[in-house]
Amino acid sequence: MAKSNANKKRRKLVREGRLNPEINRSPFSQLDLHTRKTKNKKDNMYKTKHKNRHPQQWENDSFFILKLR
């Protein structure tokens, strides 16, 4: 791969005996500070858009009314 201009400048500074700027970097620059969280109960509950909706049950809901006189 090609070297970036910043990388070329850093290597040139080291070649000339000057300080490498990478040494001055904070140790925290190498850490991944992105926080990740797992799904909790509320997230799992909101997965279904319409709560308490079971279309399979509705297909079998039938009733019969008998009027006797």
UniProtKB/TrEMBL annotation:
Disordered: annotated segments: 1-55
Protein name: Uncharacterized protein
Lineage, opening ranks: Bacteria, Bacillati, Bacillota, Bacilli, Bacillales
Source species: Oceanobacillus arenosus
Biased composition (Basic residues): 1-13
